[in-house]
Amino acid sequence: MARPITAGIDGTEESLAALAWAAREAVRRDLPLRVVHAWRFQSYESIGVGDRDTQHGWVRDAMTEAMRTVIERHPELRVSVDVVEGHATRTLLDAADGSEMLVLGSHGHGPVVGFLLGSVGQQVIAESTRPVVLVRAGDKPAAEADGRDVVVGQYGAPEDSAATLRFAFETAAARGAMVRAVRAWTLPPVFAYSPGSLKLLDEAGGLEPYEKKALADALQPWRERFPDVRVSEHVEMGSAGQVLLSVAGRAQLMVVGRRAHRTAVGARIGSVAHGVLHHADCPVAVVPHD
């Protein structure tokens, strides 16, 4: 059975943009769409506002209204709606486990404002076993049809970014888009050099040719698997986040890998994903390692 694309919505403008994005992606991939809303009963006995069943009915009505436009635009789409009473983080993580991807709304730019900095978004992105796509309220569907690229960050050995590249190529294939694969590199500290690493660099002709070869090697199996997908390779010296954002202007989607770090105050994702989520104008997919 095909796994659905799941959209988590809460009635905000951002989550409705995420719902619209998820519906379009489900149509492109010929997958069902699942819409999930987590809620908790709030007792307002002192002012006589609704018992549990009444409040649940209000939520269902709001969900039905949110789905109306989606169904009108995509009558062929298979849609299911789940209203789950429970904690938002756990509900979304459970929903993501059985999904092709989870799509959520994201707030705007800035060091303070941002979906990522909310406790729910932070935990979901850091702990999800499936890709999580963040969509801003101002997302424009036209960006998906005007020749913009699917930009993906590649790093390390081929196996380190295999899941990220797979997601990027699958998305590009469904959209008829080009994949722009980006690899950033920096000069290693002197103590990182070893006879073995120096030999590899000499054989490759230097640092930059070595990095270009590393990117080409990582892309090769995906080029073979998706021969119809056009690929552009971009290798540049600099921090990964800055290099990715430098090519974001022509991106319809940014795809980055996720390395989650456990700290005393909970899970935190890596700095590259953090920076791209806060500053890219387009939707961003955060893909966990296999």
TrEMBL record:
Q: Which SUPFAM superfamilies does the entry mention?
A: Adenine nucleotide alpha hydrolases-like
Give a single Pfam family match. Answer: Usp
Alphabetical list of InterPro entries matching this protein: Rossmann-like_a/b/a_fold, Universal_stress_UspA, UspA
- Residue stretches in coiled coil: none
Reading the lineage from the top rank, the first entry is: Bacteria
Where would I find the UspA domain in this sequence? 1-136, 157-288
Family classification? Belongs to the universal stress protein A family.
Q: What is this protein called?
A: Universal stress protein
